[in-house]
Amino acid sequence: MKLAVVSRGLVAAVAIISSVAVLADSELVQRIKPVGEVCMAGEACAAAVVEVAAGPRSGKDVYDTKCMACHASGVAGAPKFGDSVAWGDRVSAKGLGGLFDSAWNGINAMPPKGTCSDCTEDEIKSAIKYMSEG
Ligand code: HEC
């Protein structure tokens, strides 16, 4: 009698375990799993992750993402994109090297590196060239 109860319990336990296994694969579980699952580099799911572009960003990229905030409309007297007179005056006064120094270190309301804290020297130079030539 006791044995029968134990074995019936065992059958029930096995039934529960196998239904959990079926559930784990079910569409329902797929639908309710977290949206932002961690995906490690090298895993198949990581192939869908957009790689960060290697190599230097173009002057346009840096301008569009960082410098445009002020240089598009001329915030606080920033020389505007493509304004050849404003840029020309500055180039004649300081030369491109001088403009780079101010951009790199900051000048008045112009923050160091124009807020592009991870920009390289070449990226800042390209952005200045892009902005001043329009
Ligand atoms: C927060 C606003 C702001 C951002 C962002 C910004 N600038 Fe400027 N920038 C200014 C202002 C204001 C000036 C004018 C400073 C002055 O001469 O008083 C200026 C001036 C300059 C000058 C001329 C400096 C000189 O000596 O005449 C260069 C070159 C320049 N910015 C490059 C950049 C580059 C490259 C970026 C993006 C990587 C950038 N700036 C982002 C505000 C900004």
From TrEMBL:
Domain annotation Cytochrome c: ranges: 54-134
Source taxon at top rank: Bacteria
SUPFAM superfamilies: Cytochrome c
GO MF terms held by the record: electron transfer activity; heme binding; iron ion binding
Pfam family, one: Cytochrome_CBB3
Keywords per UniProt: Electron transport, Heme, Iron, Metal-binding, Signal, Transport
Signal sequence residues: 1-24
Name of protein: Cytochrome c domain-containing protein
